[in-house]
């Protein structure tokens, strides 16, 4: 089944996009598992996920075959696999065999798997999810430091040119996103960082998320434009890109 990895600079909108993409795909009648290995992921807060011990990603790592008990079910089609809020950020990292087993089980259990990949280096889940992904949503970011991140991860980005889908999530109405994209396009990775989909700025996004969790399918001009962009991304990742 398809695995979509979402990766990019810090504060580039990865988690918000992961949430809305997972929700949108589930509305199309597919079972979706959204995975976030971050020990302080905002997934738990946005979805009001109250994990009980030993539920959560740690259980899935260390007890193969336990995925259905480890996930938090949002509704009949959408499932969350997140770190518990009290997870030690400096605790033991997961091993490659544990990550391989988890992603293999998730792919066999659900019709679409989305991984909200940490931006940091040497993260086993991010590395293997990107390796196994049928598509990688590569976010441009929305601050000037994004160029430095792309320079640092230049070699890693060059390893998956055929399945990268550059996306620009506009988190502000004043930043020069097209200027940043122009800078990012002049890189040595072999991947042209020219956004295929532009997700428009959504005024008052945080207030909306506090009320209804997702921005997708929200009413009004901004909501319709945002939803159209997410639908476009859905078409990309469900189109069998590899």
Principal-axis shape equals globular
Q: State the CATH architecture.
A: 3-Layer(aba) Sandwich
Low-confidence stretches: 86-90
> What number of domains?
1
For CATH, the homologous superfamily is named as P-loop containing nucleotide triphosphate hydrolases
- SSE pattern: EHEHHHEEHEHEHHEHEHH
C-alpha-based Rg, rounded = 17 Å
Number of helices: 11
- Give the strand line-up of the largest sheet: 3-4-2-5-1-6-7-8
Question: Fraction of residues in helices?
Answer: 40-55%
Overall structural class, as computed from helix and strand content, comes to alpha/beta
State the end-to-end distance. Answer: 12 Å
The averaged pLDDT comes out at 84
Percent strand: 5-15%
Query: How many beta strands in the DSSP annotation?
Result: 8
Q: How can the largest sheet be summarized?
A: 8 strands, mixed
CATH overall fold name = Rossmann fold
């Amino acid at each position: 089944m398809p695995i979509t990895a979402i990766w990019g600079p810090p504060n580039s909108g990865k988690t918000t996009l992961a949430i809305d993409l997972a929700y949108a795909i589930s509305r199309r009648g597919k079972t979706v598992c959204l995975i976030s290995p971050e020990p302080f992921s905002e997934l738990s807060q946005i979805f009001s996920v109250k994990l009980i011990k030993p539920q959560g990603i740690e259980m899935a790592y260390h007890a193969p075959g336990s995925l259905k008990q480890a996930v938090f079910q949002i509704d009949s089609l959408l499932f969350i696999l997140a770190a518990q809020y009290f997870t030690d950020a400096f605790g033991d990292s997961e091993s490659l065999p544990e990550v391989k087993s988890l992603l293999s089980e998730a792919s066999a259990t659900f019709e679409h798997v989305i991984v909200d990949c940490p931006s940091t280096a040497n993260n086993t889940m991010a590395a293997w999810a990107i390796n196994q992904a049928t598509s990688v949503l590569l976010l441009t970011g929305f601050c000037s430091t994004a160029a430095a991140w792309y320079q640092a991860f230049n070699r890693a980005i060059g390893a998956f040119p055929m399945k990268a889908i550059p996306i620009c999530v506009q988190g502000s109405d004043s930043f020069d996103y097209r200027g940043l994209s122009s800078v990012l396009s002049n890189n040595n990775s072999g991947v042209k960082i020219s956004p295929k989909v532009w997700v428009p700025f959504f005024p008052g996004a945080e207030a909306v998320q506090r009320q209804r969790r997702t921005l997708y399918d929200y009413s009004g001009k901004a909501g319709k434009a945002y939803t159209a962009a997410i639908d476009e991304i859905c078409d990309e990742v469900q189109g069998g890109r590899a």
